[in-house]
Write a structure and sequence with these properties.
The chain is built from 11 helices and 8 strands. It is an alpha/beta fold. Helix 7 packs across helix 11. It binds iron/sulfur cluster (SF4).
Length: about 300
């Protein structure tokens, strides 16, 4: 699919950090029909990880940004394999409840022009094991404007509340390292995910890719990126605030070394994960250790 920030509905070129080809596993061939992508993906993952059951991940771009009948056809095709036991569907908040089809979603809901896909997702939630992934990236509206998201934090809250009202299992994407965000914004993001009842989170580090609009912005006007130590500390700060029951799907990013400009440390994924473990051990803390004392004030 595409995104309202790419097709001209809300903008062109996509969000500032988002790579042109979209995030996808290297073994996925997007030109093939879904059925064939699933078959090949299963072969690959089965060989590599000895996996027996599979979730099909609709990852690049906005995977609810199409008419509901097209979505249904794609999701059914993905589920039509005996070893597929569920779906993960990545989307934007405004494309979950109002599809982002209206201009100027900052501060107000976009007008609804077609049925929202929320009812469809509820149907799949009942039929299969479904995760819906929502991009938050930041709670700071100035940051969301800088990254050209085309929606504000209130839109994220509305979408999350509507999805939770239907019982959907939700995972949020958060970026750590955006230059207009401060530590308070990251802590506020953790508190917001607790309050909104999120079931999972993916934490990414900001990196500059030549394949994203940020590559050009950074070349023109370089700005300080987080150091490795700052990133590890900040991720631990977030983990300590999160509800201990929240599933941590990801703690850093997978950057492509061929197009990565900076920071180079983000290529050492294993090293970063070990340092996060070590930092939590050094603090004598863990996920949720500050949840009851501080975060519940916000969680209510
Ligand atoms: S970050 Fe998401 S919404 Fe923004 S351009 Fe990339 S895929 Fe589209």
């Amino acid at each position: 699919m595409t995104c309202p920030t790419r097709d001209g509905t809300l903008g062109r070129g996509g969000c500032i950090y988002c790579e042109e080809a979209g995030a996808r596993a290297a073994y996925v061939e997007p030109a093939l029909p879904i059925r064939e992508q699933v078959r090949r993906g299963i072969e690959h993952v089965r060989r590599r990880y000895k996996a027996e059951k599979f979730l099909v991940y609709f990852q690049p771009y906005t995977n609810t940004y199409a008419p509901v009948e097209r979505l249904r056809a794609l999701f059914d095709e993905a589920l039509d394999h005996p070893d597929v036991v569920g779906l993960m569907i990545g989307t934007r908040p405004d494309c979950l409840v109002d599809r982002g089809v209206g201009k100027a979603t900052f501060g107000q809901p976009a007008p609804q022009q077609e049925p929202a896909p929320l009812a469809l997702l509820e149907e799949y939630h009942r039929r299969t094991y479904l995760w819906v992934e929502l991009g938050l990236q930041s709670v700071n509206d100035a940051t969301l404007a800088w990254v050209r998201r085309g929606h504000d934090f209130a839109a994220f809250e509305r979408a999350a509340a509507a999805a939770k009202a239907r019982g959907l299992r939700l995972c949020a994407h958060v970026i750590v390292g955006l230059p207009t965000d401060r530590r308070e914004d990251h802590l506020a993001a953790a508190d917001a995910l607790n309050r909104l009842g999120f079931d999972g989170v993916k934490i990414h580090c900001l990196y500059v890719s030549r394949n994203a609009p940020l590559g050009e912005v950074y070349a023109r006007e370089p700005f300080p990126l987080m150091t490795r130590e700052e990133y590890v500390e900040r991720v631990c700060d977030i983990l300590e605030r999160l509800n201990p029951r929240m599933v941590i799907h990801r703690l850093t990013s997978d950057a492509d070394r061929r197009t990565l400009v900076a920071p180079l440390w983000c290529l050492d994924k294993g090293g970063i994960l070990s340092e996060i473990d070590a930092e939590l051990a050094r603090r004598g803390s863990r996920q949720g250790s500050l949840y009851r004392t501080e975060a519940t004030t916000f969680a209510g």
